[in-house]
Amino acid sequence: MFQRKTSYKEVVEELQWISDRISTQVRSISLGLIIISWGLIIGQPQIAGTLTTNLKKNLLIIGVLALVTMFFDFLQYFFGYLTTDRLLNKMDLEKLDNDYCDYTTATYKLRAFFFWSKQILILVACVWFLVVIISFCIRAVLNSSN
Hints:
Layout: H1 8-42, H2 45-93, H3 106-145
Helix pairs in contact: 1-2, 1-3, 2-3
């Protein structure tokens, strides 16, 4: 097994990089779901009419889930900023070169809550979207063969 000793600083930097990548993917997927859902809802009848008629409620819910996911993404960064700003202010006031991040503060807990919540929400929205579209396609194929 390949192993490499890693410093605490490297682990934190890697975690920050991964968190940023996950957030970028969440935003991209959320925007995609919003665009697809909204496009199908307001699309031309001859293009998306049957799909929209049958799936409008589901598409609206999926779009709302994607919007809430994006808002949770914002809240994660907002509470992360508050947590970091509080630590920086403490370090400035006490003239410290380094200090401990307090993982028990409400702002840190809210940051973590919104990070995980947005992952769950986008997963639910994507699975819901796939189930709705795939089941619609299966029904359409079965109905056309009759």
